[in-house]
Amino acid sequence: MRASLIQIAVDEGDSAESRRGRVASLVRDQAGVADLVVLPELWTTGAFAYEEFAAEAEPLDGPTHEAMAKAASDAGVWLHAGSIPERAPDGALYNTSLVFSPSGERAAAYRKIHRFGFDKGEAVLMGAGRDLVTVRLPETTLGVATCYDLRFPELFRGLVDAGAETLVVPAGWPERRRAHWTLLAQARAVENQAFVLACGTAGTHAGVPQAGHSIVVDPWGEVLAEAGPGEEVLTVEFDPARVATTREQFPALKDRVLGLQPPRR
């Protein structure tokens, strides 16, 4: 199976509309190259452009959905289209990922569960998702997470319990914490004995330099491919069957102890 992670540079001078057109073209370029294409988080606005979220928010089936569905169909690829600022029918905002099949049908939508910012930014502007999302491909089952989710291992355990074998993580990760990005991607791969495809952004979002360095990690924690800091298409071939082989040869997941309680005082 071949995957292409498109590490987009968000130029703050571009409109969301012009960026959609450029990204759709990049997706179409993957026709015959990749089976799965992954885009980063909030590439229509920039992950740290908080003041743009409300202005650029769109319904689930809005212009980004339309453009990416057509791009997936034109390229004949599975497309994780990164995430958009979604405006729900009740007016609430969410950081929502979209996944499309090679026919252009929406296969899944995932509202980010862990919102970054503590008491500002995304954490107060956007609602929290509640549902774990997996997507069955012919070769593997994707588990879908977004950026800050990477810091919460229990979410990924839930995805594995739901059948995930390949964990896909679009992000707008800042350069100042790039070491954590690499470390956590490898940790999530090792502890869940799964592939991790983590796609970041390049450039600067609202004055925040982005880490880039999209990365693909195998179930043993080996880095199969890693991008540099700038805009880049990172393409890697991987064998989804290695997940089952790894879990069989080193069956650590069978030794999980669930439901542990703190000591009584």
Overall description:
By secondary structure, the protein is of the alpha/beta class. Helix 1 (about 15-30) packs parallel to helix 3. It has a single domain, classed as Carbon-nitrogen hydrolase (Nitrilase/N-carbamoyl-D-aminoacid amidohydrolase). The chain has a six-stranded mixed sheet with strand order 6-5-4-3-1-15. Strands 7-8-9-10-13-14 form a six-stranded mixed sheet, with helices on one face. Strands 2-11-12 form a three-stranded mixed sheet, with no helix packed on it. The protein contains seven helices and 15 strands. It comes from Streptomyces phaeoluteigriseus. Belongs to the carbon-nitrogen hydrolase superfamily. NIT1/NIT2 family. GO terms for molecular function: hydrolase activity.
Contiguous uncertain segments of 5+ residues: none
CATH superfamily: Carbon-nitrogen hydrolase
What would you say the CATH architecture is? 4-Layer Sandwich
Overall form: globular
Total number of beta strands: 15
Q: Strand order across the biggest sheet? A: 6-5-4-3-1-15
Structural class by helix and strand composition: alpha/beta
Average pLDDT works out at 96
Strand fraction equals 25-35%
Order of helices and strands: EEHEHHEEEHEEHEHEEEEEEH
What is the count of distinct domains? 1
CATH topology: Nitrilase/N-carbamoyl-D-aminoacid amidohydrolase
Give the CATH level 1 class.
Alpha Beta
Distance between the termini: 52 Å
| Helical residues, percent | 25-40%
Number of helices: 7
Radius of gyration: 18 Å
Biggest sheet overview: 6 strands, mixed
Domain CN hydrolase: 1-240
Family: Belongs to the carbon-nitrogen hydrolase superfamily. NIT1/NIT2 family.
GO molecular function: hydrolase activity
Keywords: Hydrolase
